[in-house]
Amino acid sequence: MAIIDPINDKILHELSRDGRISNVELADKVGLSPSACLRRVQDLERQGIIKGYRAVIDRSKLGMDLTIFVMVGLSGQLRADSQAFERAMAAAPEVKECHNITGTVEYLLRIEVEDLATYKDFHSNRLGTLSQVGSITSHICLGSSKDMRG
Fold first, then answer.
1. Rounded to two decimals, what is the model's pTM?
2. How far apart are CA 147 and CA 56, in angstroms?
3. Architecture of domain 6-46
């Protein structure tokens, strides 16, 4: 595990807020010279701490107005069940995130679709047809007061 000093912590915080910030502006915000700041950012990238940079997309402008969090319980506990389910979710464009979790179910999904009819189709014709799926609980997102995803 990498040890992050307070300056690298500030760098990571600023980059998570704005991945397109210029090196000069970033250096100014964290109190370094531009060359020292660039060296630190490159080192964080080399260590794999910074894995990449992303655009924050307003999905509603693309007609993706509905976000649904789905809890999925598997019908079996074999590794093959989990692997088959994860492959199916990786191939589903509606699934934006797939998390293996602890608790009463095995997976938490974040689904983005145009409308409820589209989700119903996904629920019935994708999730509902997988033999690995034992239970599905859907939670429709009414709004997000904080969302730090890229």
1. 0.81
2. 10
3. Orthogonal Bundle (1.10)
